[in-house]
Write a structure and sequence with these properties.
326 residues; Conserved hypothetical protein from pyrococcus furiosus pfu- 392566-001, ParB domain; 7% strand; elongated; 54% helix; alpha/beta; single chain; ParB/RepB/Spo0J family partition protein
Amino acid sequence: MSKFKNIGSWNSATKTAKPEETTVPQNGKSLLGGKKLVEGNLDRIRRGRKQYRTTTEEEHILQLMASIREHGFTGSLPVIAVEDANYDYEYLGGHTTGEALKRLGYTKALLSVEEVKDPLALAEFSYQLNGANRPLNALDDTLAILDILAEALALQVGKVEPDEIPTLIRQIARDTAKVDTAKVDCIKDTWERNQFAISIKSFAASRLPLLQLPEDLKSAIQQGVSPASALELNKIDDAATRADLIEQAMEMSVADIKQAVREVAKAETQTRSAQKKEWEPLKIFRAVSTKAKKINFDSVSATKKKELTKAIQRVQELVEEIDSIS
């Protein structure tokens, strides 16, 4: 886990320990590095502002509940104290454990009150805590890394537009010469300090494209569909067809999904071809025109020429009338 310094204050997000807090014996630190342990009301803890995990697996909550029933809860929940009329604390990690405890009827739990005083430290600390328990899915992890970089840039070089960060990452991956050195150095330093499990080059190639996916595929990744599968499914234009495959994607390999996408693409091509089938009367007209080119009209009787002239004039009038309307 990264080490963080307490730099300044952050919108009065932290506050001094409450009277009921007690200093931990011996070294005065909690199990997770905080300076205080306190028994806190679970209903007075709000969701972390930097909680990057968007979905919580019901199975994981049930597993935690079973473990707590058997062994009890002997740990502590990492939090920071906040100034909020409705809450005393905010989760840094342990959101799922807190939910399991509440379902089991717990109203209070031992809290490790950490001192995190700026948004960058909060972002990094929350990311490390959540990732240590269970890895984030690829999209959540991507958004978390971008948020950490945004906080680092805001703290060190000034606030930047969100769209600028992916551009800077691509420039670093391509080793582009003309870049903003201060911003690039900030990104590289932040990447190294947090020891992100993916390189900047791989992040640019495989993670940034996820941001351009439609919402149904982003949601699918957050539910467990692999990024590679989601990118394949994005090749399907029809939303209903894509939705059907998304439902099956969890049980399919990437190779199976690629094959399914190819079959859908083939069917869509055939459908489009059928829809663009030439109008039958127009086919007849083209065939007649081809035959007309072979006729020696010098040998055609005057009566037939007269009839043919009228027919051609009528066709010409109809085509010009339709053309003027369209």
